[in-house]
Specification:
alpha+beta; 4-stranded antiparallel sheet
Length: 104
């Protein structure tokens, strides 16, 4: 049976929980992160991945574009460093997105 994501309610209105995915590719200067995607899920895996709540598709799409921009030029020495950097940026955004005046 496949879990189907549904819109749920939060203090700020309806949300969809999405699992964040990306590619980590080797290069001459180190590992690069790209092709970010957020897949709706009813069973987020925060133990081995990053899951975030989005109020709208536009919010999700804007977040993914910002990730692409933020990581376009960054390179990492190993997979763990790349994962932790993406996770830290995503959780920072999630913790501050409802703060008035916050621009990430």
């Amino acid at each position: 049976m496949v879990a189907v994501a549904e819109r749920s309610e939060s203090a700020n209105g309806p949300v969809v929980i999405c699992q964040l995915h990306w590619r980590t590719d080797p290069g001459l200067r180190g590992l690069a992160c790209s092709d970010f995607a957020a897949t709706p899920t009813a069973a987020p895996d925060t133990e081995r991945g990053v899951a975030l709540e989005f109020s709208t598709d536009a919010e999700r799409d804007a977040f993914l574009r910002r990730l692409e921009d933020a990581f376009a030029a960054q390179r990492f020495s190993n997979n763990a460093a790349a994962f932790e950097a993406v996770k830290a940026l995503a959780l920072d955004w999630a913790g501050n997105k409802d703060v008035k005046g916050f621009h990430w």
